[in-house]
Amino acid sequence: MANQVSGRFSPENFGFTMPVSNPPIDRPPYYFRNVESMSFVYETSTEAAASILPQGLMLPEKNATALVTFNRFHFSTVGCYNEAIFGINCFWEGEAVIYYDTILVDNEVGLITGREPYGFGKLFANIKFERENNLIVAYAERPTGKRLVTGVVRPRDLLQPGPSAPAVTLKVIPSPEEGAPPEVCELVMVRTEKSTVTGSDGKVEAFTGPGNVSFDSDSVLNPCFKLPVEKMVRASWGYYNFTLPYGKVLKRYPPCVAATCDVNGVPRA
Fold first, then answer.
1. Which of 65, 111, 158, 207 has the fewest C-beta atoms under 10 angstroms from its C-beta?
2. Is the full-model pTM beyond 0.85?
3. Cis (ω within 30 of 0) for the bond into 19?
């Protein structure tokens, strides 16, 4: 056998994410500035929300609420991109949190930043912001040309936002071995630090007003679209700064072999 040379690249020199020899991002925190954000909160079916909410998180028995948020990141330390976020308002041990089932994003670094450290379930999509008269519109397509969700708001009243609820994700990393359970299966909490941008007049650049969100076409490939809009609660638009710090593992689930989706996109054992 010919002489061989051992690799010298050791774990203490690995980058934060893959490829570890040239990682696209470094360690948190990540900083976001002048984020244009539209958010829509609505009442939905408690049964539908419970069907995709991980065990350990709790819903109110009546009047469950979900939300759709569109973000336009003009600048961040992990790049510029757009995203559409789908969440469920719920509780972890009595604390109000938001469980994020799916996030659509149009940039690979935005996808990596959410998925790898925190477990945000991100997928690529085409996401746009538009303005027409006094209306602000955002929508997401997946694939391009198939409109999935649209949000429209007419900003009217100044909004004084309160503290934001922590984000909760379900982080799953599958095993490369056949028949093996996931290497990682855990609930993760992230306490995002968020503040409203203030205009030159000293007032916040955040508004609420009439608006609505609609799911524009059926998609069995995105379970967030199974949360029907029963009643609008709030529509808002504004500019924000926020910081994404390290998260915390709340719960590790017992290892189970992954289910397979049926024709309706529903995982079955």
1. 158
2. yes
3. yes
